[in-house]
Amino acid sequence: MFLDTFVLLAADVADPGFLAKLNDRINLGDIIVTLSFFTILMLLLKKFAWGPLMGVMDQRAELIANEIESAEKSRAESQKILEEQRNLLNEARNNAQAIVENARKQGETQRTEIITAARSEVGRMKEEATLEIASEKDKAIAAVRGEFVSLSILAASKVLGKEISEEDNRALIEETIAKAGEGR
């Protein structure tokens, strides 16, 4: 309807009572009052609604920006901690490998020492056994000589029928045994 009024008014522009007709058809006072109330309403909305609403929006935007910044800092810190953990893990692996290598070297050294000690002990035991055998051999030879001397004295006293002093007999037999030992 409002558009129809303007179309009709446009046709009557050449008419001298145009403004009077326009005022009759469109109430200019109502328009001015409506525009005034609309302007006042807009100013009040700007002051009491739009300002606080924009303040809340600004606070919300600032809060979101702070949270994004905080998340970025946390991510950077997490990345840093992750790198530190990776470095520590690599260091621990290297230390573990060094410990294993050191233990292997010590095991080789101990094995060599044990083998050397065992060979030394075997050599020592061999020498002791050789000395013990020689000692037992000497004891056996001395025992056989003693028996031989006793038997020789007994046989000589029966053959001769008289008794020779035991010291003379012993010296004579030992001399004979010594000569027999050299003859081998």
UniProtKB/TrEMBL annotation:
It is found in: Cell membrane; Endomembrane system. It is a single-pass membrane protein. Keywords: ATP synthesis, Cell membrane, CF(0), Coiled coil, Hydrogen ion transport, Ion transport, Membrane, Transmembrane, Transmembrane helix, Transport. The chain crosses the membrane at residues 26-45. It comes from the Bacteria. Residues 68-106 form a coiled coil. InterPro entries: ATP_synth_B-like_membr_sf, ATP_synth_b/b'su_bac/chlpt, ATP_synth_F0_bsu_bac, ATP_synthase_B_chain. F-type ATPases have 2 components, F(1) - the catalytic core - and F(0) - the membrane proton channel. F(1) has five subunits: alpha(3), beta(3), gamma(1), delta(1), epsilon(1). F(0) has three main subunits: a(1), b(2) and c(10-14). The alpha and beta chains form an alternating ring which encloses part of the gamma chain. F(1) is attached to F(0) by a central stalk formed by the gamma and epsilon chains, while a peripheral stalk is formed by the delta and b chains. Belongs to the ATPase B chain family. F(1)F(0) ATP synthase produces ATP from ADP in the presence of a proton or sodium gradient. F-type ATPases consist of two structural domains, F(1) containing the extramembraneous catalytic core and F(0) containing the membrane proton channel, linked together by a central stalk and a peripheral stalk. During catalysis, ATP synthesis in the catalytic domain of F(1) is coupled via a rotary mechanism of the central stalk subunits to proton translocation. Component of the F(0) channel, it forms part of the peripheral stalk, linking F(1) to F(0). This is ATP synthase subunit b. It comes from Sporosarcina psychrophila.
